[in-house]
Amino acid sequence: MVGHKINFKMSVEENYMPERYLFDQAAVLLLEGAEFFRSHNPPKYKMAIKCLKACFKTLMTHEMTSFVNFQIGKLYFYYTKNIELARHHLEQAYHGMKEAGAEYTKYRVEIACSIAEVYMQLKIFEPVKQLLRKESAHSRDFPLIHARLLFLLAEIHGAMNDWSNASEIVEAGASLFNQLGDPALECYFRLSSAMIISMDLSREEELMKSIMEVSEKLVTLNADNACLDYIKAFCCTVQICFFISAGLLKSTKTCLRQLQTLVQTMKLTYGETVPVVLPTFDWMGKETLIALTYVLTVIQSLQTCQIERAHKYHSIAMRHITDMRRLMTKSNWPVIRRGALDSLAAFEIILLENISAAQLMLARPLETISVLSAMMERMRQSTDLFSHFEAQLHTLLGMYCWFVRLPDDAERQFQAALRTAKDTESWTVVNLSLAILYLMTCREADFYGLFERITPGKLQSSSALLKASAHFVHALHSYLHSRLQEAK
């Protein structure tokens, strides 16, 4: 989902805390010191945290204590790995602002959003879903904070596979920001809705309608709007992923070219030496977006059998991801947003998945199993990633086993893939692979057991490529039974 750009300036005045108590002055000075160290070049985060901790040794009002808890909670969350301390301080800040009354509603809702970020990183969704739903009734008076809350709430529902409610939330956001006359945020909400629609390949017409609405809104944005390129990139990516899944090769190529041109422009425009106004919201950081573009280029190259091109961009993508990880460990890297490292890990696995398929296409079994081994090692580093990519790994291992003439092992891998497949397309690919295995090993009864699942007119998938593959399997079946006319 769309991310809120982090504004971390520790200004009491800017963060609407009234500086009306004399004994808050020491805390105010320490806050200024913390901000000095945080924004220092290079940053001195430990010193910033020490300044904030020192605030608790001074006399402070109840409200100022909550404010300091919020700032130290954010520091722990964004700049350290001590997520439990971040959670503790943010929850203290929230309860303090809740007791402070309606005057601090804006501040309380902002803290609630930060608490949600922490819990989402911990993969604990239900408590913050309830928290954000409760605060959504109070956040409407503050549009930007309300937008952030809606995006977080939609993401939580998506993480819980409740895509229906996620869709309702982003559609409500699009409608609200249309009324408020904020086309950039309206586009982000509409594209989030389009992304959910694109997960169902049968909803192509609905998706294109949604994309057209975004295109019409983009015309109303000023050319110098900081969000413009990010929105265009989001729009291109949603379409590319849909076209790839549906097997619409020409549409994929056209849209991918647009994304590549856009990313190249962003690389030049948003370079480190060029001052630029950052957008309040964006979908994905520039460097992560570059990595995603390389990944999509690899997938598109394989779909069009451009194996050398796929290898080239695979190497470039892996190098870019490695460089990103190295730079992220340095103190002068901007805030590492929640999910950024998970995205890079997922990109790596997708790259390995596709390059292993390329090695199989080139009849290189040793290279294939080497890549699959690397893929498995990366998957083991995260239970979430393993769960997400387990079916793909079993499918590729099944194809490898078939290639090296181990049909029984291949069948076991395909059956494991069927049990773990989480989407219609993966499930269909595995059934088609099993059907070929049964045909080539003369297991007619087993083939007919799959017949209903792989009949072109009855396929659950709307992918043109998978329908073509189903026709091929049926043609092969007819050919093996000497029904040549039917095979044609």
Span between termini: 46 Å
Q: Which strand order do you get reading across the main beta sheet?
A: 1-2
What's the total number of strands?
Answer: 2
Q: Which term fits the overall shape?
A: elongated
> Helix tally?
22
InterPro entries: MAU2, TPR-like_helical_dom_sf
Subcellular location: Nucleus, Nucleoplasm
Protein name: MAU2 chromatid cohesion factor homolog
Keywords: Cell cycle, Cell division, Chromosome partition, Mitosis, Nucleus
How do the strands and helices of this protein lay out in sequence?
Blueprint: E1 3-4, H1 25-38, H2 45-55, H3 62-79, H4 83-100, H5 105-121, H6 126-136, H7 143-159, H8 163-179, H9 183-197, H10 204-218, H11 228-246, H12 249-269, E2 281-282, H13 286-303, H14 307-328, H15 340-361, H16 365-379, H17 383-403, H18 407-420, H19 424-440, H20 444-454, H21 464-480, H22 484-487
Overview of this protein structure:
The protein has 488 residues and is mostly helical. The chain has a domain at 1-158: Tetratricopeptide repeat domain (Serine Threonine Protein Phosphatase 5, Tetratricopeptide repeat, Alpha Horseshoe), CATH 1.25.40. The protein contains 22 helices and two strands. Helix 1 packs antiparallel against helix 2, helix 9 runs parallel beside helix 11 (228-246) and helix 16 (365-379) packs antiparallel against helix 17. The longest helix has 22 residues, at 307-328. The chain is elongated. The model is unreliable at 12-17 and 272-276 (pLDDT under 50).
